[in-house]
Amino acid sequence: MVTREILSSTGSVMLVRVQLAAGFKGDVDQHPEEQLSYIEKGAVEFEVNGEKRTLREGDTQYIPSNVEHQVKVIEECVILDVFTPIRRDLLT
């Protein structure tokens, strides 16, 4: 299960709180916006451009523009995602 809450979308920056259930595995994603993810709670495995990293509370992951990435949730988590520019597809 995925729950998204847009906390801010001002200027060219967007902040989104994402809650993910344990066991969730996202589709491979790629978008023109840069992304910085901060793990507020829980643990996830990020695969970015073929490289896997396990992240826990307090860790961050940078995802450059147009790079394939995927998330696998190890334990229920809350992620704060920062996008620049704003991801218009999340506004609809």
UniProtKB/TrEMBL annotation:
It comes from Metabacillus herbersteinensis. The lineage of its organism: Bacteria, Bacillati, Bacillota, Bacilli, Bacillales. Residues 17-83 form the Cupin type-2 domain. This is Cupin domain-containing protein. InterPro entries: Bacilysin_H2HPP_isomerase, Cupin_2, KdgF, RmlC-like_jellyroll, RmlC_Cupin_sf. Transmembrane segments: none annotated. It holds the Pfam family Cupin_2.
